[in-house]
Amino acid sequence: MKPPLSLRNPNMPSGSGSLMWFRKGLRVHDNPALEYASRGSARVYPLFVIDPHYMELDPNAYSPGSTRAGINRIRFLLESLADLDSSLKKLGSRLLVLKGEPSEVLIRCLNKWDVRKLCFEYDTDPYYQALDDKVKNYASAAGIEVFSPVSHTIFDPADIIEKNGGRPPLSYQSFLKLAGEPSFSLSVELSWMPPVGDVGRCEILQVPTLKELGYVENHQDEFTPFRGGESEALRRLRESLSDKEWVANFEKPKGDPSAYIKPATTILSPYLKFGCLSSRYFYQCLKDVYKNVKRHTSPPVSLVGQLLWREFFYTVAFGTPNFDEMKRNKICKQIPWNDDDKLLVAWREARTGYPWIDAIMVQLRKWGWMHHLARHSVACFLTRGDLFVHWEKGRDIFERLLIDSDWAINNGNWLWLSCSSFFYQYNRIYSPISFGRKYDPNGNYIRHFLPILKDMPKEYIYEPWTAPLSVQTKAKCIIGRDYPKPVVSHDTASNECRKKMGEAYALNHRLNGLVSEEDLRKLRRKFDEDEDKQEPKPRRQRQKLIK
Fold first, then answer.
1. 310 labeled part of a ligand binding site
2. Would you say 517 is a known binding-site residue?
3. Residue 291, class by beta-carbon neighbours within 10 Å (0-12 exposed, 13-18 middle, 19+ buried)?
4. How is its cofactor bound, per UniProt (predicted)?
5. Kindly report the CA angle at 132 between 127 and 137, in degrees rounded to 5?
């Protein structure tokens, strides 16, 4: 990074103050909003608002956490805030924490504190877009300068969309052509900050603990191994970059989704999500490695390619109204998914009877993270592969439980994996049996996350219902008693899903995407009638197995 520059601006009044509003971007390195807030200011108010929209305890949720965030992500955020506070203290400042609806809190602070500049990182999420408009309108009317730079992404999504005539590019390759090589300068590294100003009678909080927010730690045997914060992000980045050969030869499709002791990826996604790690700094570091090796992989499979996938989804999400919905989303296929909440709960609670799928869902619950190919497996299984449940329902569960849950990327991946947009080869289905076995024939991943199956012989670990009763008895796991039977027959269910997807695609093609609610209802009725004409046993069996 560049050496620190002088932050004093002789043209700025000596008594002026700046408010730095942290949301994402929970870092000191490469933070242009923080740099600008500090430059020429006599005082800086670094503020984070505990937002009940995301953080308020929901005692009725299916797992510990709030309505919108599981406890793993809340813990990760609090750790990130504590680390940010520590970093700010080293610069002569500290983090101010308030609680409430963010726009109301910000407006109250702007009204009470001596602030001439409001600085915050630009955010493309619809929730923050609405908040930001409200706060910016107030600040402008009050004569307060607003500085909101794009630094959560490498490119400005609005620039890419403008280059494409006002429309987002809908393929990765078209995005790359439009984007070209990024042009940015990393923000200067701060060596000090102006002190915090007088906060008056505002009751400033310390970074709260989970207990102080009302959360009770459950007594599970395993928690996420990933600690939040900029310090941990930079440590993990250094660790990843130290193996230059691994960085140079990284190919996304060749990762091992069953590797859990040492995952076959950087695990930097949660740090990028919260902005503990600058994507621009990460990009520059990767480019520096590439300059010093003889050969390296290229997008879309390289590590730089993974960052550019992130940019692609951010751009499409920003430029597509109702990107997180099926019905009002112009780029989404209209498909009459079923409303079987019993199947959804079996999937969420790791009770599908398919050990590979269930182990992944246990890892999601315990760690708040799993390998991207594991995510592909369970998303395909829930939607177009086996259960034909709406992708929005799976999206909601991922959105709540993942520590790296990101509005643009999570929705983009569910659209992709359900073959609702971007990817349309619905005949290609991840097998809930053979896909995991290819990477982990002994089933060590399953044995770790589903200890009830730890003594099952490897011949049966992916299909324990096929084991003779004597084998099940010896393994101390009777299928149907200690571990559930499969909720569906994969061969039958996947064939039915292919047929349904084909008919739904034909409907979308025939109506040029203008599919009405009534059109979907008719096709749904046809699907139900087709199922009724088939042997009734699978349906009765499915209902019995889910109970």
1. yes
2. no
3. exposed
4. Binds 1 FAD per subunit.
5. 140
